[in-house]
Each structure stands twice: as C-alpha cells, then as structure tokens.
Amino acid sequence: MSDLLHIGEKSPFDEGCVPCPQGGEDRWSARWLQGKMGYPRWNEFEPVIERAKQAAHNQGFNVNTLFRANTEKTGGRPQTDYMLTRFAAYLVAMNGDPRKPEVAAAQEYFVVKTREAETRPAINGADITRLELIEIARNAELERLALEAENRELAPKAEAYDSFLDATGKYAVGAVAQMLGTSQNKLFRELRNRKVFIASGSRRNTPYQQYAHHFEVIPHEFERSNGEMGCSYTTYVQPSGIDFIRRQLGMPAIDPLPAEAS
C-alpha cells in the first residue's frame, strides 16, 4: 500500500485531471494514464482500455460517454486517445497489471476518488486511516478479480463472434442471424417489414439511406443470358449494425457485443 493519499498530499494523478470548462465531470487522458501506470507503449495499454470498456458495457453504462474518443494530430499518423471520466479511469486502473506498482498506485487513487464521489460529504484523504485504505483496496481487488473472471467467461463468446468476421471486418447477414438465434431468411423478412431494408426492385435486401452507416453494400456485375450486363448487391453488416438490428427487432442483447473494428 502506497502513501499516495496520506496526510492530504496532492497525488500525481491529480495532475492529469482535466476540468470540464462547462462544469461537467473531470476527465483524464488515456495516453497520460498510460505513462503513469507504467506502460511504455500504447499497444500494451490498449488491451487494458478494451477490458475496461467491456466491463463498463457489461454493467450497462454508455461506453462512448465514459470513454470519449479523441483523435490527436501529431504531424504523423493521427493518434487515438480517450478522455476518461473518473469511473472510466477507475475501471482502467482495475484492469491494469496489479504487479506494476504504478498500477497499484492508480488503483488506490481512483478507488478513493470513486468513494469520495459516492459519499457525502466528500472524504478528505488525510482522514482515511490505513486500515480503511486496506479495506478499500481489498474490496477493489475482489471487484477486479470478479471482472477478470467475467472477462475470461466472455472471451470464448467474443472469439466465436470474431470467427464470423469476413476479411474486411464485417459480418454476413446470415452470420448475424446465427448470432441472434434466427435464420437468414427470417432476418431479411423482418428487416424489410420494419423498413430497414428495401423490399423490392434491383436493390431488394439493401438498407435505406438513413440506415446505410450500419451496413456495407457490395455491387456485383454479371452477364445475363441475353448478353446484357446486370448488377446485383450483397449486404454486409458493420459491427455497429448488430446491436442496431437487435434493437429494431426487440431481441435479447448479445453478450459480449462484438467490438468495432479499429
């Protein structure tokens, strides 16, 4: 246990806190936390963020709100960053490598900050006894282990969904039907009935324009028996389209939800 918050000291993690100019919730940069949590490279830290996002999703939170994507232009390739709410930063800390002392320090800091936010009046770090900190850390570790076990349980399901992906990172409609526990023909029919897919004509079973961002339509030219050229279309589902279809059809949630392709 570190002395990070003892005697009312200012924590190094306070330095990364970015106040909201509109008076909303403070946030932390994921790339800033990467260094403070002892991860030298982003590709080593990104899986920690993904586990934290999955944990937030499993608990029913809006992942895009907690983990606000932010693209940084640094002169080379744009870099992805996330502006994390306090709770998102807490989940990131809890999903870090507990063998790293920097991760342990982050866990202690965000556990206390989360408790402060949930308790009124706010807790003064100097007033928390060492035994209380140990108890907070113990409870946080139990929660981390529970999340870890849940992630292990969900991993085979996620791998199974990945097996449905085509080479471009999208899903065939038949594969999505299988995920949702229905048949391809029934899924096409339901999407036509709900005016998501066009019901007739050359573009039958392709999405209407307002829903096109959830799908990708690939045209295929072919030669008719009379020698004329024709065009047919194959509809694929983007990762975002899976939950969109589920909600349109009132089907049970997929757990875990397939991730967006990076």
TrEMBL record:
InterPro entries reported for this sequence: Ant_C
Pfam name, any one: ANT
Domain Antirepressor protein C-terminal, residue spans: 148-249
GO molecular function, one term: DNA binding
Protein name in the entry: Antirepressor protein C-terminal domain-containing protein
